[in-house]
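Work Package 3 (structural annotation) set out to generate three-dimensional models for the target panel prioritized at the project kickoff. During this period the team completed the workflow that converts sequence records into discrete structure tokens, so that structures can be stored uniformly alongside our sequence database. As a representative example, we reproduce one entry of 320 residues exactly as it appears in the project archive.
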Amino acid sequence: MPIMRAAFVSRFDDANPLAALAVGEQPEPTHPADDWVTVQVRASSLNHHDLWSLRGVGLRAEQLPMILGCDAVGVDPDGNEVVVYPVIPTPGDPRGVSILSEHFPGTLAERVAVPRSNLLALPAGLAAADAACLPTAWLTAWRMLTTVGRVDDADAVLVQGAGGGVATAAVALAAAMGKRVYATSRDAAKRERIAELGATAVEPGARLPERVDVVVETVGAATFDHSLKSAAPRARIVVSGATAGHEPKVNLRRVFAMQLEILGTSMGTPDELAALLAFCAERGVRPVVDTVVPFSEVADAFARLHSGDVFGKVVVDHTA
């Protein structure tokens, strides 16, 4: 059986997810249907989704080993540089879809198989390492702001927990759209760095100079009361994560009195990814990259992400 090198889940370890990571040989991708193609991966990036997979969230033991990774840029069978859209139709999943590395092998490998319709052209001027940051975290942030948050109708945006992939993306995108952006972080150094992206950086829970029209919420219980208090009348609080608690207390009086919308979202559509790619290429917006490591050091990349000290995305260079 043909093999390739890959990073994959070998077992589950909730207490120490890095112990469940294996790097070694795995079978070459197979094609579940005639419309699938194999992409030679040039660059990928890590997400917290990968750490959750190592903990056993969203996977079953009988699916192991499972190649990790959602994001990739590579070369298709015709020699075209492409960005991989990671959402795959999956009738057996309750959502009707799944993300690469949930039911189908992921992108942290020499090659990955996806439906041909999941391939988007890499825009001219956008480096593979930058574009590899976009299909999950940045796409989620783009959808939170545009389709769900209706940011075109907003003047001010609050981003909770800046420093993580989605939150940092939301700051950079909202600032590039010309919005007044406020961003919270417990870390003073991260507040300094987020200010360099065009935001007014504040400590968690701090009173803002104004109420905002859109709140980007990825933290959860630890920040949700602040999100409610910071929201202007008819504001949208858009939720895509709950890294610090998934069961916040919600003051329903504030919700109905201020006519607030609390909206959940995850990922985005191929058209939204195409719009994000075009926006970044045309506006000169580039993802915040914490670290770029060669694939031979992918275990170090996971350790970096797991440390919590990252600011932006951890990128894996498959050509080095």
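Residues 134-148 form the longest helix (15 residues).
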